[in-house]
Please model this.
Amino acid sequence: MMRHEWRFNTKFAWENPFLRWLSIGLAVVLIAVSIFAVIKLIQLGLPSGYIVTHYTVYLGIDQMLPLPWLAVLISVPILVIFATMILGFILFRKDSLAGYALLALATTSTVIWSMYLYYLIKINT
Model:
């Protein structure tokens, strides 16, 4: 596909009110939850300089990273979810089922990401 086809497909998908409001809602929730988590985790991690990034029932805390790793930890899933949404828009005109499926995947990923951030804040408290 060429660039002008991508723009046309995205514009075509954007005209669908359900896809438009779903993607706007996902972007707002994703950014808001991530910003809230970053603020809370920075507050919790500043005294020690580390944040707990993984906890298991059997082993307890098994991964701690320095605070600068928080930028990578937060930004990578955001980029992946936004890429999934954009790919859903690009594919929507040729295969609407794939476009809907990718947006459903982005929705599910956002919910899982929000739950992960909640528990990440909880174990660092």
Strands lie at 50-56, 60-66.
